[in-house]
Amino acid sequence: MKKKIIGATTLAVFAVGAHAQSSVTLYGLIDTGIVYTNNQGGHSAWQENSNMLSNTVWGLKGSEDLGAGLHTIFRLESGFFSQNGKSYYNNTSFGRQAYVGLQDDKYGTVTFGRQYDSVVDYLGSIALANNGDGNNLAAHPFDNDNIDDSFYINNSIKYTSQTYAGVQFGGLYGFSNQAGRFANDRAYSFGVSYSNGPINLAAAYLQLNNGGSIANGALSNNDAPNFPAARQRVMGVGGNYTFGPATVGLLWTHTLFDNTTAASVPGVLNTLHFNNYELNARYTLTPALSLSGAYTFTEGAYSSASGSTHPKWHQVTLMADYSLSKRTDVYLEGVYQHAYGAPVDSAFGGAEINGLAQSTTPNQVATTVGIRHRF
Questions:
Q1: What would the pLDDT profile of 308-323 be if each residue is shown by its tens digit?
Q2: Cα Rg for the chain, rounded, in angstroms?
Q3: What residues does the Porin domain cover (predicted)?
Q4: Burial, 279: exposed, middle or buried (Cβ in 10 Å; 0-12, 13-18, 19+)?
Q5: Alpha-carbon distance 42 to 58, whole Å?
């Protein structure tokens, strides 16, 4: 009897130890605010909205220690609108991220599922639009470079290295999952970053082939790009420097679309491209109060059978954020955008701050005050 009791106790100890090596965490962020816009479709607007700054999400993430420095990891993440409780992605339980993989303490991480591309992973932290918890209103026009993660890659396998002497690199490939159409609606990207003390540098590349053109490809219907194209390419470099309480960043991205269409632009565009130049800064006044801002100049160009046009955008973003606690903060932000170089009644003529409807004039101003809570 004594041996049985000892044996049962030993098994219980091992079971507790095995359980302690695994973890599952429920997490999330809720962002809701009041937004005023001077012109949306010819009218001013007062609206209660979520996701104006940060994506409102909830998710599960976890890991299991397999021993010898190897871990199983997973993440399931869903987006929703806090003002009405609706899901951000139709007919999708975990529309933001859904992946599982293996992480090795020495060789890096391999994951499979629905994931961010390398432009988001490596350049997102440099832009004001995707730094920290994000700032969706500060995205470049139409989020043409996906810096603000407007879409995600399905059927993807991703590798992320460990950091070696400040250098980290990685890549992603998204399968079309179609027999006989391997290259149709596929995606691939890669990136590299370097961090050393106050310096952070990064570069990345992304390519989509007929993105969103077939069901169950690398892009789903929920991720249909603003400008469906035979080929979309995004490339960029950037960096930031921190000195004391201040951080200053510079970012350039170049987006190319081949044989694309755009709303309110007649016919097929032979070419469409954007150059985005962003200067941003962040300053911590006190442990609770921080200020941030960005200026972005975007130059576009497109050609079609009827000729070529060169639209341009100036955008200024200013924000103040005050932390009430480690998990709750309130914010005030203003964004101004000026568009010119294209007919006002076209997709590129009226100003259109990310997340809002297009203005009927070349100018648009938006201000928002809101609260964010992390759990």
A1: 899 999 999 999 999 9
A2: 23
A3: 8-337
A4: middle
A5: 35
Residue recorded with tokens 């690199």: 169
Token digits for 72? 């199983």
Question: Which of 274, 359, 335 lies closest to 52 in space, CA to CA?
Answer: 335
Task: Tell me what percent of the residues of the chain surpass a pLDDT of 90.
Answer: 76
Six-digit token string for 17: 């130890």
Q: What distances in angstroms separate CA 53 from CA 214, 288, 340, one per listed residue? A: 31, 18, 26
- Measured at the CA of 136, the angle between CA 134 and CA 140, to 5 degrees, comes to 115
Look at phi and psi of residue 18 and say left if phi exceeds 0, alpha if psi is from -120 to 50, else beta.
Answer: alpha
Contact of 285 with 269, CB cutoff 8 Å: no
State pTM to two decimals.
0.90
Give me 295's structure tokens. Answer: 């200026």
Three-state secondary structure string covering the chain: CHHHHHHHHHHHHHHHHHHHCEEEEEEEEEEEEEEEEEEECCEEEEEEEECCCCCCEEEEEEEEEEECCEEEEEEEEEEECCCCCCECCCCCCCCCEEEEEEEECCCEEEEEEEECCHHHHHHCCCCHHHCCCCCHHHCCHHHCCCCCCCCCEEEEEEEECCCECCEEEEEEEECCCCCCCCCCCEEEEEEEEEEECCEEEEEEEEEEECCCCCCCCCCCHHHCCCCCEEEEEEEEEEEEEEECCEEEEEEEEEEEEEEEEECCEEEEEEEEEEEEEEEEEEEECCCCEEEEEEEEEEEEEEEECCEEECCEEEEEEEEEEEECCCCEEEEEEEEEEEEECCCCCCCCCCCCCCCCCCCCCCEEEEEEEEEEEEC
Longest dimension (CA), the chain: 92
Residue 109 has pLDDT above 50, yes or no: yes
* List of domains in the chain: 23-374 (2.40.160.10)
d(CA 172, CA 157): 6
